[in-house]
What we know:
Elements: H1 3-8, H2 28-38, H3 44-65, H4 82-87, E1 89-99, E2 103-115, H5 122-129, E3 138-141, H6 143-148, E4 151-152, H7 158-179, E5 183-187, H8 198-209, E6 215-219, E7 239-243, H9 251-257, E8 263-267, H10 279-289, E9 298-301, H11 311-333
Amino acid sequence: MNRAVLSRLGLTLPLLPTTSVGSLPKPPELLAARRRYTAGAISRRELDGLAEEATVFWLREQEAVGLDVLVDGEMYRSDLVGFFAEELDGMALAGLVRAYGNRYYRKPIIQGPIRWEQPITVGWWRFAQGHTAKPVKATVTGPYTLMDWSFDEHYGDRRAACLALAQELRKEVAALVHAGARIIQIDEPALSARAGELPLVREALGVMTDGLDAYWIVHTCYGAFDTVYPGMLALPAHNFSLALADAAVDWIAHFAAAPFTADLCAGVIDVHAHTVESVDTVRARIAHALPLVPVVGLWAAPDCGLKTRRVEDALAKLRVMVAGAALVRDQQDSGGSGI
Ligand SMILES: [Zn+2]
């Protein structure tokens, strides 16, 4: 469907391209170094050096696994919103906030006008792309999620805060495009937080992406998607990366009622399950997604970032995903329909 966009960008991908969503597990030595950095025991330079080593490790591993579109693995990030909040002027991190049962994170605060002062992820993207011949997908947290997950002490209005973030994040994605990034994913896990605000998400993503030439993926996960489908199809995205392995949402029923009109990056690996799926489970999940979109528009990925898994488990999950995708790809190539 959007293969024409990919080829215009000079990208030739196989049928059923495989990728990961964005974050990969940090090796134990990098986690330890991050703790030492927080305690003031090592310099930022030392920490960045270790994050670079971990990035190269993951690039080699992703190549060995056989993924088609790689990521930098986000070895330099704290979390999805905290990292950008620390890097954008006007935002800071508050104390610990409880989320998801017993998990805690530091909620950002918008304290003043949000300003993008310099590239945030571009150096890391360039570093990663410089170490592989495969395309590296850039990932940026979206303005709506950054707004929704932050305290706002400055704008006093969700729309104003969201659009201000979109204006500034546009500078980041423009810098990524300028650096050569051709596939850019905007992470919007909060997409369905308030269904009535879907027009705001659309407006904000338009502000962020209008006129910038890239293949845009919008990733979202674990929300009340029945409330935003099919309206979400109006977002400026060539591809939606959705959680399908965790079958909380019956996508088939939704897509039957209103056909999916973008490419689909089907989540076929449950990132929260400790056990590694079998190749056949992955094959079946991809087969389940096949009727949803024309096969040329279908990609395979995990449901979400793999950072909460151990390195070896994440690798095992990616291996079965690639093997399952290869089975389906072979069957499609040979014109088979018995999947
Ligand atoms: Zn996710």
